[in-house]
C-alpha cells in the first residue's frame, strides 16, 4: 500500500468511525444498551482504532462479531483477538464484547451455546459493519460453502460453516440475524473489491455473490481505492 492509498484508507476509516459513533450516540439517547456488530479480517483495523478513541458511554455498548473463525482467541486468525487488540481499547475499553466461540471442539457443537451467549444482546443492532471478500462473501456467507443456502434462509441466529476456500471452520450470523439492525455499512477498499461490488450490484442471485443479500436494505457503502 503506497502513502496516498494509506492516507485515503485512513480517511475512510475515520469517516466510518464517525458515522458509527453518531449512530450509537443517537440510539443511546433512546435506549439503555445498544449493540454494534462488526466484521473481522484485515480491512477494519484502522476503523477499529479510530472508533476506540470516540467519546461515548461505552459501558452501555455491546459488541459482537458478524462471524468468526473457530480458532483459539490467542490465534492470529481470531477475529475476537483483532477486536480485543484494536477496538476494545482506549475509550472503548469498557464496552462489553461478546465473542462467537465457545470451548466446544467444533462450531457445530458450539453453535447452541454461542446462540445463548448473543440472545440477550440489544437486538436489533444499531449498526452492522460488513466486509466483503473478492468472491463476494460477507461475514462467513461464502459462495462455495455447502451451508450457504441454510445461512441465507435460516431463522436461527447462527450457522456453523465449512468451506473449501477457508482453512478453518467458521461460525456466522445468519442473513436473517444480520438484517436485525437499524443500519448496515459495507467497508471495503481497493480496485478488486470495487470490481466485485460492481458485478454484485448488476445482479440478484445472493448464492453467487452473497453480499447481494444486503441490497434489500439501506446499505452505506464505504469504499476507498
Ligand atoms: C472474516 C470476515 C470476513 C471479511 C472478509 C474481508 O472473518 O474474515 O468477517 O467476512 O470481512 O473476508 O476480509 P479482508 O478485510 O481481510 O479483505
From TrEMBL:
Hydrolysis of 6-phosphogluconolactone to 6-phosphogluconate. It catalyses: 6-phospho-D-glucono-1,5-lactone + H2O = 6-phospho-D-gluconate + H(+). Transmembrane segments: none annotated. Gene3D superfamilies: 3.40.50.1360. This is 6-phosphogluconolactonase. The keyword Endoplasmic reticulum does not apply. One of its GO terms (molecular function) is 6-phosphogluconolactonase activity. It holds the Pfam family Glucosamine_iso. Pathway: Carbohydrate degradation; pentose phosphate pathway; D-ribulose 5-phosphate from D-glucose 6-phosphate (oxidative stage): step 2/3. Residues 9-214 form the Glucosamine/galactosamine-6-phosphate isomerase domain. The keyword Cytoplasm does not apply. Its EC number is 3.1.1.31. One of its GO terms (biological process) is carbohydrate metabolic process.
Amino acid at each position: 500500500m503506497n502513502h496516498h492509498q494509506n492516507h485515503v484508507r485512513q480517511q475512510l476509516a475515520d469517516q466510518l468511525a464517525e458515522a458509527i459513533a453518531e449512530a450509537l450516540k443517537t440510539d443511546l439517547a433512546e435506549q439503555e444498551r445498544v449493540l454494534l456488530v462488526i466484521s473481522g479480517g484485515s480491512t477494519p483495523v484502522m476503523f477499529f482504532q479510530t472508533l476506540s478513541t470516540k467519546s461515548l458511554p461505552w459501558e452501555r455498548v455491546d459488541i459482537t462479531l458478524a462471524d468468526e473463525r473457530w480458532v483459539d482467541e490467542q490465534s492470529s486468525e481470531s477475529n475476537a483477538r483483532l477486536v480485543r487488540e484494536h477496538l476494545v481499547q482506549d475509550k472503548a475499553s469498557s464496552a462489553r464484547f461478546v465473542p462467537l466461540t465457545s470451548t466446544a471442539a467444533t462450531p457445530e457443537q458450539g453453535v447452541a451455546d454461542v446462540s445463548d451467549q448473543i440472545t440477550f444482546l440489544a437486538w436489533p443492532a444499531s449498526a452492522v459493519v460488513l466486509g466483503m471478500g473478492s468472491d463476494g462473501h460477507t461475514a462467513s456467507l461464502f459462495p462455495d460453502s455447502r451451508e450457504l443456502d441454510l445461512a441465507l434462509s435460516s431463522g436461527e441466529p447462527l450457522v456453523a460453516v465449512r468451506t473449501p476456500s477457508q482453512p478453518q471452520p467458521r461460525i456466522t450470523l445468519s442473513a436473517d440475524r444480520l438484517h436485525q439492525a437499524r443500519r448496515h455499512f459495507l467497508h471495503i477498499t481497493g480496485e478488486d473489491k470495487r470490481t466485485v461490488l460492481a458485478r454484485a450490484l448488476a445482479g440478484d442471485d445472493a448464492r453467487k455473490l452473497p453480499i447481494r443479500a444486503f441490497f434489500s436494505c439501506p446499505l452505506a457503502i464505504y469504499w476507498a481505492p
